[in-house]
Every structure is written in structure tokens, then in C-alpha cells.
């Protein structure tokens, strides 16, 4: 089945997410769609799958124009999409998730789960997916959840399969396995759209590449004739290197030391299982791992949001195991939270208010029980200038800023003061390349000024680029440690550790 | 690879898991209850407590249950103390919720025995009343389940009950009981539809929308009853659905009168609970509805219309609440009074929470509230030293205890209360 | 890394200090929507009267009476203000709670028990000079209101119990408690069998302001209390540190926690403040108007205050205006009942309708598309 997009345009308020896009998708071919965060890749594919309606433009299937009212129409036309954020109901089983929307039923609308399970097993066998149809989604690791998403698409016998940044949550080895699945689907005659912002992946898997920037197609070509440099330039609009310039570290005294830290999750299993490590001043320690292996809990425990069940946290030679978030902050611990919209900022508050979210009480910003607003606003304005936060005014609600500027605002708030330890969780998730580079520079600058820096990221490239030392977390434990200052380290070795292979 | 750290197991500190703490709290509560039962109910009780299990007219007479009050309560206190101590020991951790539930049941028994000491009390009558009083709460809770399963919080159940009660009385007076019942269901459904429109289409805050519907219905029904009913009394005089006995089943001692010698509303509530359980958990549309409540984006990407699903279920919830509201008039007195639902809708919501968003759970929880409600009525007859005002508070206090989750905590549907904004 | 905070800022930073104006949008939400809301509610109110067999002449007469009874004379204005005082006080408390993310429905109960406490403090401390006695009685009301509200706050902070249900239950409990108290010998008026409390002595009463013109003008010194409370709540919310924490928790509890704010403390403090204001409303009602406590003396003020807080968009000045409007409806409604024989319950319907339209601006825009800028960004509802 061949699909063509013609002149697709889509606006969200003032943002033009797609601007006159033309694209061809062919059966038996993997089309690689490259573009940095915010380029409009997901929007375009959401339009193709029927979730969004385009403002203008047409979708043609085998040369015939079609109009999708809702995703049901897209599914009926043979288009299946695996979304960037998984669309699985956590409390349902695999089988229930797979059949949702196209359920086999008996009399009285009775849900025929027995047939469903059998059908799921059949597809499982055909494509070698190996997923237990009766497992609850919430108990499955993300790698398996992704297979469930693919099962869903196959169950609906889709001919066009859209994979939106499918590798973001996988370890390097899982990526290889995943590519095998993609190739076998292509060889079975499916048309595949593979979306990513990672250059080496797109070169490896694609038969044809289209590059998207600011909602427009800025380049197309044959992977054999393209290099990462040319692709990067098409994607960002200027030459970029994707390496972080940094000098060798000068580690000093231990700034953070965590010993025997344990924490339980809701099911009374170990979320953190006897974690031990240190972060010294003047070094960047990166924590690698597939998301959901205890990184979030570790950061929350270090920053004081969660009390550990046992163990000790020392910060700058003081025992802070029972200290409050505010106390730790006051002592010089900076925290860049993993989800800025949920926990890093308040969208309806102004930029100025957000800038003092965790220091409004300090004498510098207050007079007795009152907040000194003029002082806060002036300081916030200065911070915006210092950290390249692009906003017309500090009185603008922070929700109106772009993602990159919001994150720079959070970084400014955390770093523009006396700090000793920076805990940064997914500091660049979802940002454009310019903001990523800027934030990386700032983190390295903090290190060079003598801070300890702890970075948690599920992007292995980010961890490898920034860290002086890498710790790998798996199932709540630190399972491996790598020193990047003593020569290049093996990506595959880190990947194996992330997958829990013990060494 | 330079080094690899393995977990160290020589940690000296004790691990403090959430469950262990909960077990300790439960233990403390149980011990406190034990003291209460021993030193208040036990020491103060003298004579025998007589519980009547059947009425003289029943075909199979069951002898009265006679309990020596003092000894019974000493034993009850001892059991409570045992359960409490057990919580502090290692083994108790596994049965925490069960122990607490058992402990509360024992507490209620001890209380009853203490209050009845030296007197007689019709247990069957009370169980029958429990069932009757549980009906509006169960139906309110069921309405809540239907709405919250598709992630719409329905604070307006109180108003829908009131609207059902009012419509039942008004239309019932004009067209008779069945007409009134049908109208009550329709009006309840209409308010459900309005709530859906406000929160789904007009994205009003769900709690505000619910509160406003309550204020509106209260205002409207009070207005009409003072403006119209006071003048035209015949408009507020509806026939009442009487209890009828189901042959054979109704003759079973104790259970019979409770379940099978009731009016239409009791049977209706039981049937609705059964149907909705089947619907929600065993059918295609039930699966889709739950998906909308747990993860509306996912449902949407699979071609399930989130907005329509919410409209349908909130309207259905309103219809159930309308039926439950008719109980107040067509099922008991036939006459509408201002604000006669008296917070039952909110208690229904608590029943839904206690019942873990499951129809059967909501019914079971409603029975607990119905029990508290009928208990306070019957106890007034036993002339306990507790002032009647405090007895009347017991259902409300029970509700607070339930929503505070002192008795276990369950997860609401993941998207509960959140509007779904497409694009 | 060390940074020195400079009081001097760059010229580039100066330019960020200009305030952005959202004029048109603010005008629409703050002025156009409420006006439409009131008009539509009055029209629907008329339709409801029509449906209940009230003829057109009477409907006209009732709306004339409504206007006359609320602003048509000095005594009407005095009645409007008198009705507005407790509505604004309790509404301020609710607004503060809403800002902190707490949907407190419990003003009615807090108000009842606060009023009860003020009455008790009133007659028990008989003989004190009024400069001491009145403040003590008011304080007693505020304190008891705060304590009662803190129960719901504590339950939420400690167990996560939703405040909507717990405050509603506390309301129901408070009705029974009041019944109980009013039968206690040391509270019940001597020689009475019905539940009614002793009277408040003059030294604890809020003095009437205009009785030198006409002894029937009931507006009392609670008016100043109300204005002071408006200023106080404004200060708390927008100037003070604790208010910043209230608003932050209300907007985004997660972010507030991540920023080191103590959510349990904030919840309890916000509930207590809200309860204190509701208790004060009850106190001002018994000390200024009623002179004693009787069952249900709150007369639904605590519920109307929810509408006041919503209509005032949880802003102190908005609450003041909304309270005056609802006070006017209340006073006018009584006149309406007398002149046209239309039940005052109609006013509750109109109030509820006003709130529907205020809380769902999309609905108003759907009804009156021409009242709003046509290229409005907001998309209207579902497909
Ligand atoms: N539902 C939405 N509402 C408003 N803006 C959106 C929405 N979805 C995407 N956008 C905006 O459209 C642009 C493109 O987003 P997206 O398609 O997700 O990019 P990509 O997938 O390439 O990272 C971004 O600026 C994003 O903020
Ligand atoms: Mg995307």
C-alpha cells in the first residue's frame, strides 16, 4: 500500500507545526523521518493516523484521496501507529490492550477474551514477539511494552506502520533486536515510517530519508549517499557536532555520598536496593539505565522528596538523610527535575514567580512576612538575560514560553546561586538542539567551578558525552561503573549493563 | 569496566516499609478498641442481650439469640487485643486490612450487645431496615461508579437524587407510580447529560459543575415545593411502591425479609448492580468505557470516541441516580420535602470509594452505611446513654473514616477528574 | 559555584520588566462574562416562574421588587450590606482555599460552630467592657471555625481524604452538634423548651451603624470587619510568603513540593484560615444581626458563599463585588416574596445559574458569540 501526503499544514494556535508537507510512503520500504524535537514529526504522523485533522492538505492512499474523521478511520484504512508516549492502559492485560477497539465478542456483547488470547499468541508466533497475553501492562518493562504496541498494530493488520521515536526507551542491544523486527515487517511487505532524531539510527535502518525542520521538509535522500554531518545540518540548519567540549575533570572532596540506600515501592519490592556511590566536587557522574529502574526514586531520595527506608545520604560532609527539601536546597543542592511541566515550574505563574519558586522565603527576596516583589522581578529579569531565557517580559506566564526556554528558566533558577551539587534529571528531554547545547555547557561550567554534578538520563549518548564517571542502574541497583577519563568506553558494555547482564 | 558494585547486605538498620508502618498503626487502633470494649462496654454491661431473629408470624420460627453481655464483651475485648498485639509481631503484617475489618465488626457487635444488655432487640428488623436504607446510597454509589469509570467525577449525585425524588413525587401524583418512576429516571438522566455537557464540551471544572448542579436542583425543587406544592397539595401526593414477598425465598429466616420481602427499589438496586458488574467487566463496551477512564488518549488512538463514551456513561449514571432518588418519595413516603436527600448522594460517593469503584463493592459499602443509619434509629429505642444527636452523626463519621482510607486504600481510575482535551 | 547577587541589573534585563497587557481577554473574562451571566440567569429565572404558573405581570412586579428591595432605598441598601457581610467573609475564606487548591464546601458548618462559639463567649463573659468583650467574642468565633476546618485539613494532609466529602460530612455533623448544644442547660435560654440559646449582651454586639437615622436600619459594624478582611486576604494571597506557597500548591502541588514547600502544613494552614473567616462570618451574623443562636441560623450562607467565591474568581475584590451582588439578590428576594408572592428560593436558582455561566465561559461564548472577539484562540468544545 502506498501513501502520499500532499501539502499538509497544521497549526496549534500561533505554532505552525506542519507547513505544506509533501511525503511519499511506499510498501516494502522503511522511510526514515528525521528531525529535532519540535520539528513536527509526531504531528504529521498523528494527522496520517487520523488523530488530528489537517488544516489544509490531502492524504492519498494508492492515489485515491481519503479523509479520516478519527483514528478509527485510519485504522480501517490500514494505518497503524506506535506513539512516542505509549498508548497502553496500565491496569489492563496485554490481550485486553491489543484487542481494545476491535474486540472479538459473543452474545450480549460478551468479551471473548479466550479468542483474543489465541489471536495474540498467533501473531506472537508469526513475528517472534514473545509477549505473554495475560501479563498486566504495568508489570512489564518498557521494552516489552513496546512490543505490545507493535502487536496492537499487527492485530489490526495495518499495512502502514508508523513508529514514533521507538528507540528512545531501549538499550543498544534492544535497539538491534528491534531493528530486526522492523526489517522482518518490511520484508513482509509493510510500509514503515521510522521517526527519530538520532542520526546513526536513521542511517542504519532507513531505505529512504526525509528530514523535517520547523515543520518543513528540508532534505530528502538515499542513506547510502548521506553522512551524519550533512544530515545534522539539514536537521538543525547549521553545522553541529553533538559532542560536548570539556576539559579533564579535577575531582576533589566527596560532595555527595550515598550509602546502603533502600526504598520500597507500592508493592513492597525494592525500588532502591542498597545503593552506594559518591559524587566528588569537580566531576560529572552520569546515571544510565532504562527508565523505571529506580532513577526517579534515587533522585527523589537524594533531594529529600522521599524518605529512604534505610541507608544514609551525606551532602558536603553532613548527614542529610532526614533533612527537608528546603534545607538541602539551602545548603547548596540544586535540582533540575525530570518533568519540568509537572514538577519543575508552575505554568500559570509568571516567569518572575517561577524564578523564586524555591527561594522566595530567603531574606534576599523578602521583608518580614512579605515578598519583595520589585526585587524578585529585577532579579528574575537579570537571570533571564544571563541564561538566555527568551521572553518578552518576566510578567509573562511561564506556560507561554517554548519548552527550551522553560527549561533554561528552571536551570537559571537552580544554578544562579551558591551551589555545591547539581542533580539534573533528564535535563534536555524534548528540547531543541540549541537549548541542549546551552544546558550542557552550563552543567559543565558548574563542574568546572567545583560543583559535584549528578546527571540522570535515559539518553545514553547524553550520559556518555557529559559524564566523567558512569553508573548503570538496573532494578534499583547500581550494577556497573565506568570511568570515561581513562580512554573511550564501550557503548555495548554499557548497554549490556543497562539490560541487567551481570559482569 | 573498572569496577562493579554489588549490593551490600550487611546493612544494620531496620527496613521500614510502608506496610510495616501501616501494620503498626492498625495494631495501635485495635488495641485502643480493645480497651474501649473491655473497660466501657464490658464493665458497664450487665444482664443478657436478647436478639430476636424472627417474628411470630414467620413460617419457620428461629429461637432468639441470647447473649450474656458482660462475658461476651470481655471475650470480644480479648480477641481485639490479640489481633492488635499480633500486628506488632512479624506475622501480622500479612493480614492487616482483614484484621482491621474483623476488629471493627467485633466492635459493632460488642456495642450492640452493650446497648441491648438487659433488653431485647429485633435483629431481623434491623437488617431489613439496613437493606432499605442502603438502597439510595448504593444507587448513588453505582451512579458514581458509572461516571468515574469514564473519569468524570460526579459530585452532583446528591442533586440528581433530589431531582429524582422531586420528579417522582410530582409526576407520580399526576400519572401514578410507574409514570413517576420513569420520569424520575429521565430527569436524572437529563441532569447527567447536563453535567456531561458542562464538563466534557464546555470544560467546566468537574467539582464546580457538580456543586452548581446541586445548588441548582436544591434551589429549583425548594422553589417549586414552596411555590406550587404548598398551594396544590395533590401535586405532592404520589402512590408508594409497597414491599412484596418473593415466594419461598422470602420465607428464609433472617435473610428472607432482608433480601426478598422488599419493594421495587431494593430489587431494582440489586439487579442494577448485577447488570453493571457484567457490563463493566465482561463486555466489549465495558472494556472500552474503562479504557476511557484509565487512559483516554489510548482509547482515542484506537478509534474509541472519548467524548461520546463520557456523555453516555454520565447520562446513564444520572439515570441510576434518578431511580435512586425516586426511592425517597415513591419508595417510602410519597411526598417530597425540601432537601430530603440529606447528603445521601455524598455518602454514596464515599460508598463508591470504599467499594473500590466496583458496583458490588459500592453495594457492600452502602450496606455498611445503611447499617449505621438503621442502627442509630433503632438505638434511639433502646435508650442508650448516648445522646440521639451523636447517634445520628454515626453515618457521617463512618463516611469520613471511609474516605480517609483508614480502611485500606484503592486506586481510582487513572484519568479520574481530568478533562480530555484533544489537540 | 559562587554567584554574587547584584542589586544593579543590565540594561537588557530592564526591558523585561515591562508588564505585558492582556487587556481584551481580561476584559472579556472579568466584565463581559459576568454581565452576560447575570442577564441570562435573570431571563431563565423568569422562564422558570412562567413554567410554575406565575403570570407575566407578577414576573414584572417581582423583578421590580427585586431591584427596589436591593438598592431602591436607604433601608434596601442597608439590607443588602447586612446580607453581604457574612457572604463576603465566608466567601473570602473559600476563595483563599480555592487558591490553595482546596475545594472547601464546609463553610456552612464552620460558620455555624463559629457563630455558636461567639454566642457562648458573648453570654458567658457578660460584664466585660465592650472593647474587650466584642473582640473576644469575634475571636472565639474565628478560632472555633478555624479548628473545625482544620479537621478536614488534617484529614487531607494525613490521609489524602478528599476535602469535598469530608467537609460536607462535617457540615452534617455540625447541624447535629448545634442541635445538641442548644439543648444543653448552660446554653439554652432559661425557661424555653425549644432549642434556642441565651442572648448576647450588648457589650458583645456589633453596633449598628445607622440606627441614629432609623432604628430599623440593620447594617452593623461587621461592615468594617468585612472590608478589613478583604484587604487582609488580598495581602495574604498576593504579598505574603505564605500566600505564595498557598497559590503555588493550588496551581501545581507537585511543583510546590519539589520547591520545598511543606504541603501538609500549607493544607492545614489554608483550611484553618478559611475556617477562621467562615467562623467570623458566623460570629458577625449572631453578634450583629441575630443576637442568639437557633437551629439552622446560618440559613445557607455557607453554601451561598461558595457561589460568591466562584463568581468572584477567588480574588478578594471579586469576592467583595460578588458578595454585594448576592447580598442584593438576597435582600431583593425578600422584597420579591413580600410584594409579588414569589418564593425566595428562586434566588438560589438564579445564583446557581450565574455560577454555571461564570464557571463555563465557553458556554457563554457559545450562547453569545457576538460578545467576544471573533478570532478567539479558544476552540469551542468537542468535535
Ligand atoms: N497538541 C498540541 N497542542 C499545541 N501544540 C502542539 C501540540 N502538539 C504539538 N504541538 C507543537 O507543535 C510543534 C511540533 O511538535 P511535534 O509534532 O510533537 O514535534 P516532534 O514530534 O517532531 O518532536 C511543537 O512546537 C509543539 O509544541
Ligand atoms: Mg515527537
Please describe what this structure looks like.
The complex is a heterotrimer of chains A (503), B (423) and C (383). Chain A has 503 residues and is an alpha/beta fold. In chain A, 33% of the residues lie in helices and 25% in strands. Chain A has three domains: 3-236, P-loop containing nucleotide triphosphate hydrolases (Rossmann fold, 3-Layer(aba) Sandwich); 243-332 and 421-503, P-loop containing nucleotide triphosphate hydrolases (Rossmann fold, 3-Layer(aba) Sandwich); 343-417, no CATH class. Chain A contains 17 helices and 22 strands. In chain A, the strands form five sheets. A six-stranded mixed sheet of chain A has the order 6-7-8-3-9-10, sandwiched between helices. With 423 residues, chain B is mainly α. Chain C has 383 residues and is mostly helical. Chain C has a single domain, classed as ABC transporter involved in vitamin B12 uptake, BtuC, CATH 1.10.3470. In chain C, helix 3 (56-71) crosses helix 13 (316-340). The relative contact order of chain C is 0.19. The chains are: A alpha/beta (503), B mainly alpha (423), C mainly alpha (383). Chains in contact: A-B, A-C, B-C. At the B-C interface, helix 6, helix 7, helix 13 and helix 15 of B face helix 6, helix 7, helix 12, helix 14 and helix 15 of C. The complex binds adenosine-5'-diphosphate and magnesium ion (MG). Residues 12, 15, 17, 35, 37-43 of chain A line the site of adenosine-5'-diphosphate (ADP).
Keywords:
B: 423 residues; mainly alpha; ABC transporter involved in vitamin B12 uptake, BtuC; 2 domains; three-stranded mixed sheet; two-stranded antiparallel sheet; 5 strands; 67% helix; 4% strand; C: 383 residues; 15 helices; 69% helix; globular; disordered N terminus; disordered C terminus; binds adenosine-5'-diphosphate
Q: Low-confidence spans of chain C: pLDDT under 50, at least 5 residues?
A: 1-6, 374-383
Instruction: Bin the strand percentage of chain C.
Output: under 5%
How are the strands of the largest sheet of chain A arranged?
A: 6-7-8-3-9-10
Shape verdict of chain A: globular
User: CATH topology of the largest domain in chain A, what is it called?
Assistant: Rossmann fold
How many domains of chain A? The number is: 3
Tell me the count of domains of chain C: 1
What small molecules does this complex bind? adenosine-5'-diphosphate, magnesium ion
Number of strands of chain A: 22
Detail the poorly predicted runs of chain A. none
Q: What separation lies between the terminal Cα atoms of chain C?
A: 53 Å
CATH topology of chain C: ABC transporter involved in vitamin B12 uptake, BtuC
Mean pLDDT of chain A, as a whole number? 92
**Beta strand count of chain C:** 0
Task: Work out the radius of gyration of chain A.
Answer: 24 Å
CATH level 1 class label of the largest domain in chain A: Alpha Beta
Tally of separate helices of chain C:
15
- Estimate the helix proportion of chain C, in percent: 55-70%
Number of helices of chain A: 17
Amino acid at each position: 500500500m502506498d501513501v502520499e501526503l500532499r501539502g499538509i499544514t497544521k497549526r496549534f494556535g500561533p505554532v505552525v507545526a506542519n507547513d505544506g508537507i509533501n511525503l511519499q510512503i511506499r510498501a516494502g520500504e522503511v522511510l526514515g523521518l528525521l528531525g529535532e524535537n519540535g520539528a513536527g514529526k509526531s504531528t504529521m504522523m498523528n494527522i496520517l493516523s487520523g488523530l488530528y485533522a489537517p488544516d489544509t492538505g490531502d492524504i492519498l492512499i494508492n492515489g485515491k484521496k481519503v479523509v479520516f474523521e478519527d483514528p478509527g478511520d485510519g485504522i480501517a484504512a490500514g494505518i497503524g501507529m506506535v506513539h512516542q508516549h505509549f498508548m497502553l492502559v496500565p491496569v489492563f492485560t496485554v490481550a485486553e490492550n491489543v484487542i481494545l477497539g476491535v474486540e472479538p465478542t459473543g452474545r450480549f456483547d460478551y468479551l471473548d477474551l479466550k479468542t483474543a488470547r489465541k489471536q495474540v499468541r498467533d501473531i506472537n508466533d508469526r513475528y517472534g514477539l514473545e509477549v505473554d497475553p495475560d501479563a498486566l501492562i504495568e508489570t512489564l518493562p518498557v521494552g516489552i511494552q513496546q512490543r505490545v504496541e507493535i502487536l496492537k498494530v499487527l492485530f489490526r493488520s495495518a499495512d502502514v506502520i508508523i513508529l514514533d521515536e521507538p528507540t528512545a526507551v531501549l538499550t543498544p542491544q534492544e535497539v538491534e533486536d528491534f531493528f530486526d523486527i522492523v526489517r522482518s515487517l518490511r520484508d513482509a511487505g509493510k510500509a514503515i515510517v521510522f521517526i527519530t532524531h538520532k542520526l546513526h539510527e536513521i542511517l542504519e535502518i532507513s531505505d529512504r530519508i526525509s528530514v523535517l525542520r520547523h515543520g518543513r521538509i528540508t532534505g530528502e535522500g538515499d542513506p547510502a549517499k548521506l553522512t551524519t554531518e550533512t544530515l545534522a545540518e539539514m536537521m538543525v540548519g547549521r553545522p553541529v557536532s553533538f559532542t560536548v567540549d570539556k576539559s579533564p575533570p579535577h575531582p576533589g572532596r566527596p560532595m555527595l555520598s550515598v550509602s546502603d540506600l533502600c526504598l520500597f515501592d507500592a508493592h513492597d519490592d525494592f525500588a532502591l536496593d542498597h545503593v552506594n556511590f559518591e559524587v566528588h566536587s569537580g566531576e560529572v557522574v552520569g546515571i544510565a539505565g532504562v527508565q523505571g529502574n529506580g532513577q526517579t526514586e534515587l533522585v527523589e531520595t537524594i533531594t529529600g522528596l522521599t524518605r529512604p527506608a534505610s541507608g544514609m545520604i551525606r551532602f558536603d560532609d553532613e548527614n542529610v538523610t532526614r533533612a527537608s527539601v528546603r534545607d538541602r536546597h539551602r545548603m547548596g543542592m540544586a535540582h533540575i527535575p525530570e518533568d519540568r511541566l509537572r514538577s519543575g515550574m508552575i505554568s500559570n505563574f509568571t516567569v518572575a514567580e517561577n524564578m523564586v519558586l524555591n527561594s522566595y522565603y530567603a531574606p534576599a527576596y523578602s521583608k518580614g512576612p512579605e515578598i519583595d516583589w520589585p526585587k524578585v522581578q529585577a532579579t528574575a529579569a537579570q537571570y533571564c538575560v544571563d541564561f538566555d531565557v527568551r521572553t518578552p517580559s518576566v510578567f509573562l506566564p511561564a506556560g507561554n514560553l517554548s519548552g527550551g526556554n522553560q527549561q533554561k528558566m528552571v536551570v537559571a533558577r537552580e544554578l544562579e546561586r551558591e551551589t555545591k551539587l547539581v542533580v539534573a534529571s533528564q535535563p534536555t528531554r524534548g528540547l531543541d538542539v540549541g537549548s541542549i547545547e546551552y544546558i550542557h555547557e552550563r552543567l559543565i561550567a558548574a563542574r568546572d567551578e567545583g560543583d559535584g554534578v549528578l546527571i540522570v538520563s535515559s539518553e545514553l549518548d547524553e550520559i556518555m558525552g557529559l559524564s566523567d564517571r558512569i553508573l548503570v542502574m538496573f532494578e534499583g541497583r547500581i550494577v556497573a561503573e565506568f570511568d570515561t577519563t581513562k580512554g573511550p568506553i564501550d557503548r555495548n558494555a554499557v548497554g549490556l549493563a543497562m539490560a541487567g547482564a551481570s559482569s | 569496566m573498572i569496577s562493579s558494585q554489588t549490593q551490600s547486605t550487611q546493612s544494620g538498620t531496620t527496613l521500614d516499609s510502608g506496610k510495616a508502618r501501616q501494620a503498626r498503626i492498625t495494631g495501635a487502633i485495635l488495641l485502643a478498641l480493645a480497651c474501649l470494649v473491655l473497660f466501657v462496654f464490658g464493665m458497664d454491661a450487665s444482664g443478657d442481650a436478647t436478639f430476636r431473629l424472627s417474628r411470630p408470624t414467620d413460617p419457620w420460627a428461629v429461637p432468639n439469640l441470647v447473649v450474656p453481655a458482660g462475658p461476651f464483651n470481655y471475650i470480644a475485648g480479648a480477641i481485639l487485643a490479640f489481633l492488635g498485639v499480633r500486628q506488632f509481631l512479624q506475622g501480622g503484617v500479612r493480614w492487616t486490612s482483614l484484621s482491621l475489618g474483623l476488629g471493627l465488626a467485633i466492635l459493632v457487635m460488642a456495642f450492640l450487645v452493650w446497648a441491648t444488655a438487659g433488653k431485647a432487640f429485633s435483629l431481623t428488623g434491623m437488617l431489613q431496615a439496613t437493606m432499605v436504607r442502603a438502597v439510595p446510597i448504593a444507587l448513588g454509589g453505582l451512579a458514581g461508579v458509572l461516571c468515574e469509570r469514564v473519569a468524570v467525577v460526579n459530585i452532583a449525585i446528591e442533586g440528581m437524587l433530589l431531582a429524582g425524588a422531586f420528579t417522582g413525587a410530582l409526576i407520580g401524583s399526576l400519572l401514578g407510580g410507574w409514570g413517576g418512576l420513569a420520569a424520575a429516571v429521565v430527569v436524572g438522566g437529563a441532569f447527567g447529560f447536563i453535567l456531561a455537557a458542562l464538563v466534557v464540551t464546555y470544560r467546566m471544572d468537574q467539582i464546580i459543575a457538580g456543586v452548581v448542579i446541586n445548588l441548582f436542583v436544591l434551589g429549583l425543587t425548594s422553589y417549586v415545593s414552596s411555590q406550587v406544592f404548598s398551594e396544590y397539595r395533590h401535586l405532592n401526593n404520589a402512590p408508594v411502591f409497597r414491599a412484596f414477598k418473593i415466594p419461598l425465598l422470602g420465607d428464609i429466616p433472617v435473610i428472607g425479609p432482608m433480601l426478598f420481602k422488599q419493594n421495587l427499589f431494593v430489587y431494582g438496586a440489586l439487579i442494577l448492580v448485577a447488570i453493571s458488574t457484567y457490563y463493566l467487566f465482561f463486555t466489549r463496551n465495558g472494556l472500552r468505557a474503562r479504557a476511557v477512564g484509565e487512559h483516554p488518549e489510548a482509547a482515542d488512538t484506537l478509534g474509541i470516541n472519548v467524548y461520546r463514551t463520557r456523555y453516555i456513561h454520565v447520562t446513564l449514571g444520572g439515570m441510576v441516580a434518578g431511580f435512586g432518588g425516586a426511592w425517597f418519595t415513591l419508595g417510602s413516603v410519597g411526598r417530597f420535602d425540601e432537601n430530603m436527600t440529606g447528603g445521601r448522594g455524598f455518602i454514596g460517593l464515599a460508598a463508591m470509594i470504599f467499594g473500590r469503584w466496583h458496583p458490588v463493592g459500592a453495594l457492600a459499602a452502602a450496606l455498611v452505611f445503611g447499617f449505621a443509619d438503621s442502627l442509630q434509629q433503632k438505638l434511639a429505642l433502646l435508650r442508650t446513654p448516648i445522646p440521639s444527636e451523636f447517634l445520628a452523626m454515626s453515618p457521617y463519621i463512618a463516611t469520613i473514616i471511609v474516605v480517609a482510607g483508614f480502611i485500606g486504600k484503592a486506586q481510582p481510575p487513572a484519568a479520574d477528574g481530568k478533562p480530555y482535551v484533544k489537540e | 559555584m559562587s554567584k554574587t547577587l547584584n542589586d544593579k541589573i543590565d540594561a537588557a534585563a530592564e526591558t523585561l520588566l515591562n508588564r505585558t497587557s492582556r487587556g481584551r481577554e481580561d476584559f472579556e473574562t472579568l466584565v463581559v462574562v459576568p454581565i452576560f451571566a447575570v442577564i441570562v440567569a435573570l431571563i431563565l429565572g423568569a422562564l422558570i416562574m412562567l413554567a410554575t404558573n406565575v403570570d407575566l405581570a407578577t414576573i414584572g412586579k417581582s423583578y421590580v421588587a427585586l431591584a427596589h428591595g436591593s438598592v431602591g432605598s436607604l433601608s434596601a441598601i442597608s439590607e443588602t450590606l447586612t446580607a453581604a457581610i457574612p457572604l463576603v467573609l465566608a466567601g473570602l475564606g473559600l476563595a483563599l482555599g480555592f487558591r490553595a487548591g482546596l475545594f472547601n464546601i464546609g463553610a456552612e458548618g464552620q460558620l455555624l460552630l463559629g457563630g455558636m462559639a461567639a454566642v457562648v463567649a458573648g453570654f458567658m463573659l457578660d460584664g466585660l467592657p465592650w472593647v474587650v468583650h466584642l473582640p473576644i467574642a469575634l475571636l472565639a468565633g474565628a478560632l472555633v471555625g478555624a479548628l473545625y476546618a482544620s479537621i478536614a485539613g488534617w484529614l487531607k494532609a494525613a490521609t489524602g481524604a478528599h476535602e469535598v466529602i469530608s467537609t460536607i460530612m462535617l457540615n452534617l455533623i455540625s447541624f447535629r452538634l448545634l442541635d445538641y448544644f442548644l439543648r444543653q442547660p448552660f446554653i439554652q435560654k432559661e425557661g424555653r423548651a425549644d432549642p434556642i440559646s441565651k442572648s448576647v449582651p450588648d457589650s458583645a454586639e456589633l453596633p449598628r451603624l445607622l440606627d441614629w437615622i432609623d432604628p430599623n436600619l440593620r447594617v452593623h459594624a461587621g461592615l468594617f470587619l468585612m472590608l478589613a478582611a478583604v484587604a487582609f486576604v488580598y495581602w495574604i494571597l498576593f504579598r505574603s510568603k505564605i500566600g505564595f506557597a498557598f497559590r503555588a500548591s493550588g496551581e501545581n502541588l507537585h511543583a510546590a513540593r519539589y520547591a520545598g514547600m511543606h504541603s501538609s502544613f500549607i493544607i492545614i494552614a489554608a483550611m484553618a484560615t478559611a475556617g477562621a473567616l467562615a467562623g467570623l462570618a458566623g460570629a458577625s451574623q449572631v453578634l450583629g444581626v441575630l443576637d442568639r443562636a437557633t437551629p439552622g441560623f446560618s440559613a445557607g450562607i455557607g453554601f451561598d458563599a461558595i457561589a460568591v467565591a466562584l463568581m468572584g474568581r477567588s480574588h478578594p475584590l471579586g469576592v467583595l463585588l460578588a458578595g454585594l451582588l448576592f447580598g442584593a439578590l438576597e435582600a431583593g428576594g425578600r422584597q420579591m416574596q413580600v410584594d409579588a408572592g414569589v418564593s425566595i428560593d428562586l434566588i438560589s436558582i438564579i445564583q446557581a445559574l450565574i455560577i454555571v455561566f461564570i464557571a463555563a465561559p465557553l458556554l457563554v461564548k457559545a450562547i453569545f458569540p457576538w460578545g467576544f472577539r471573533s478570532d478567539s484562540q479558544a476552540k469551542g468544545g468537542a468535535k
